[in-house]
């Protein structure tokens, strides 16, 4: 997943969660989205935090397909950080 794909996922989740009344998660996603113009590590780090919150707190708010996308994105971010710190 590149930065644009991650940005698009965050925006999509933001719209869906806001429409379902989950403003507290929307705010977290907006904070991550706001980091898109910064360094990749800042953007990816904030995105990892936001997606972790979404994964933990969005039960019943998102479809199974969206939960899978969140889980997949988190796995890729974890791998990126693990690889980044090993080198």
Description of the molecule:
It is a single chain. The mean pLDDT is 93. By secondary structure, this protein is mostly helical. It has one domain (3-86). It starts with a helix and ends with a helix. Helices cover 79% and strands 0% of the residues. It is globular and about 35 Å long. Helix 1 packs antiparallel against helix 2 (23-33) and helix 3 (40-57) runs antiparallel to helix 4 (64-86).
Give the total of domains.
1
Number of strands: 0
Q: Count of helical segments?
A: 4
The description of the largest β-sheet is: none
Q: Give me the strand/helix succession.
A: HHHH
State the separation between the terminal residues, measured CA to CA: 20 Å
Q: From the structure provided, what is the oligomeric state, counting identical versus distinct chains?
A: single chain
What would you call the shape? globular
Computed over alpha carbons, the radius of gyration is: 12 Å
Structural class: mainly alpha
Write the layout of secondary structure elements.
Elements: H1 3-19, H2 23-33, H3 40-57, H4 64-86
Descriptive labels:
single chain, 87 residues, mainly alpha
Brief description of this entry?
This protein is an all-alpha fold. 79% of the residues lie in helices and 0% in strands.
